Amino acid sequence: MDVAANCSLRVKRPLLDPRFEGYKLSLEPLPCYQLELDAAVAEVKLRDDQYTLEHMHAFGMYNYLHCDSWYQDSVYYIDNLGRIMNLTVMLDTALGKPREVFRLPTDLTACDNRLCASIHFTSSTWVALSDGTGRLYLIETGERGNSPSEKWEIMFNEELGNPFIIIHSISLLKDEDHSIATLLLRIEKEELDMKGSGFYVSLEWITISKKNKDNKKYEIIKRDILHGKSVPHYAAFEPDGNGLMIVSYKSFTFVQVGEDLEESKDENMSEKIKEPLYYWQQSEDDLTVTIWLPEDSTKEDIQVQFLPDHINIVMKGQRFLEGNLYSSVDHESSTWIIKENNSLEISLIKKNEGLTWPELVVGDKQGKFTRDSAQCAAIAERLMHLTSEELNPNPDKEKPPCNAQELEECDIFYEESSSLCRFDGSTLKTTHVVNLGSNQYLFSVIVDPKEMPCFCLRHDVDALLWQPHSGTQDDMWEHIATFNALGYVQASKRDKKFFACAPNYSYAALCECLRRVFIYRQPTPMSTVLYNRKEGRQVGQVAKQQVASLETNDPILGFQATNERLFVLTTKNLFLIKVNTEN
């Protein structure tokens, strides 16, 4: 059995600044331009049956503005008329209206359980599109961005089951065979999940291919499904299509597709429904085993044999339970009786009084241990000295207990740490695992569209940007940039909704649910002399923080950052904030 390699992320020390002094608030005005939309954005609000945190992460916090990383300063959104609208910016002072590049052929409002329509720019000439009803489109676009050769033509159009959103897609060309891999996300109902939320997350890896140049039709050649219990923060294919990387709180595993999937589902159901073979409980002196009998059972149908360290129970000639007991019993004093409620009750007297048995029969997992209320009360009483109903019952004590109210949000760790996993595309097994621990996931950004998207993690107070590489490389995750103290700063922004950075790392930005956008620039040289009063040294660089306030009361639905501009989408408007000027 292949075991996944436990890896770690190697920080490049030269990219860290231990003497960073913080951000200085700058009151320099940011040029802001506003465009009114012809039709409202096709926002899909959560339904009453989409009540879990996973639904909120996947669909409630969905980014309705999509950036085409293959073309500079080109963004797209889908309006409630089913039109895909594009705005490509050449000059801020001569902004045109968003233009229609494609119209969905289906009526979105006809589907009751639809999700938000999603789009992913697979390559410079291909786009993957979902209408939110469960239909996937692959569209050949030609050169996009106001190019004369731009023409959106559907090359694949198929219903794929329950509604989904597109997480990632790549275009592959091998020996003149063109294929596109797409990663689709669904949140499915799990009927037998009594303890959890009642839902699970499904990621479907679909490969669609055209075998040769003469054959114009694209067909599905491969479908693989992963199941997990949390919406992934990050999921992306390797550029060669040989692997998949996922950052999530709870791990994902591949499941079999088709008939095998149904069989394994039936097996899982039968396992969950299966009742324990027997119930047992214990005191300091004895053990009591309870077995529910079939109807019309008599004393003659049952044989129970007691030995000092062994038990054998036979029912109607069939062996019911046999094995070595965890410890010795007084077999001569042990008894059994059939009770009025049609149950067999067996009493075993312990030879070693006071010994707690972790199991009844060694290696047997068919029984269930139960505690009576008196035992629970006794345990609670023994632990009483470790607990208190008061937060700090003895404030005069030399070492008072930790006061949770003194913790800042940025000091709080999640109950379950995230992990970064790489899955092999052919074996469908996990090959590499990184335990992220307290390195909180912040956001992802496409620095180079030909490479995998980068992801940003919090490391101590900083935010570090990591570029994943193909699974065959030694340095699979490369530390490429640092946003000083941003990990600490962002923790105080309780109303943050979207987080992004420029592909050239010149600034990071986050926006709140309403109106405000915060911009954090990288340190730049000072034009004037500035001294640090505490240390008496000259400060050569300063990092600026800027705040933009949008003139709208509509909630922010989308947010994208380019090297020069920030794009902010609301229900009825598209805002452009000029952050950097061209070099």
UniProtKB/TrEMBL annotation:
GO terms for cellular component: cytosol; nucleoplasm. SUPFAM superfamilies: HSP20-like chaperones (SSF49764). InterPro entries: CS_dom, HSP20-like_chaperone, NUDCD1. Residues 273-361 form the CS domain. PROSITE patterns: CS. Keywords: Cytoplasm, Nucleus. It comes from the Eukaryota. It is found in: Cytoplasm; Nucleus. Pfam families: CS. This is NudC domain-containing protein 1. It comes from Catagonus wagneri. The lineage of its organism: Eukaryota, Metazoa, Chordata, Craniata, Vertebrata. The gene is NUDCD1.
